[in-house]
Specification:
β4 and β5 (48-52) form a beta hairpin. It contains 2 helices and 6 strands, in the order αβββββαβ. The chain has helices at 3-10, 55-73, and strands at 14-15, 18-19, 24-33, 38-43, 48-52, 82-89. With 97 residues, it is α+β, with helices and mostly antiparallel strands. The longest helix is centred in the middle third of the chain and has 19 residues, at 55-73. It has a domain at 22-84: TTHA1013/TTHA0281-like, CATH 3.30.2390.10.
Length: 97
């Protein structure tokens, strides 16, 4: 387990004297579309789907969607407890040289 994930899962922080909600992690499945030169990604749990030229931009788009859809689709999840992880798939390319 990575240190970041361990910190997120083990966090028992307080903010303004109130205990924060337990982290909720949604996974975005992303794949590189070579023909279109974009990343396509979706998360059925949110639900959300988007395309973007970079993984960072894809994460930004789906993050915004997730926060917009959270109250309707997951009313028991506090926005500050929402975390997104990306599983990205791209064909291996030989090293240049």
């Amino acid at each position: 387990m990575t240190r970041v994930l361990a910190r997120v899962l083990g966090r028992v922080a307080t903010e303004n004297g109130a205990e924060m909600s337990r982290p909720v992690i949604f996974t975005i499945s992303a794949a590189w579309d070579q023909e279109a030169s974009i990343w396509t990604g979706h998360c059925d749990d949110i639900p959300a789907a988007a395309d973007a030229p970079t993984l960072d931009e894809l994460l930004e788009k789906i993050s915004a969607m997730a926060l917009d859809l959270l109250p309707d689709n997951h009313p028991d999840v506090a926005p500050e407890s929402l975390f997104l992880q990306i599983t990205a798939l791209r064909e291996a390319e030989p090293a240049a040289g």
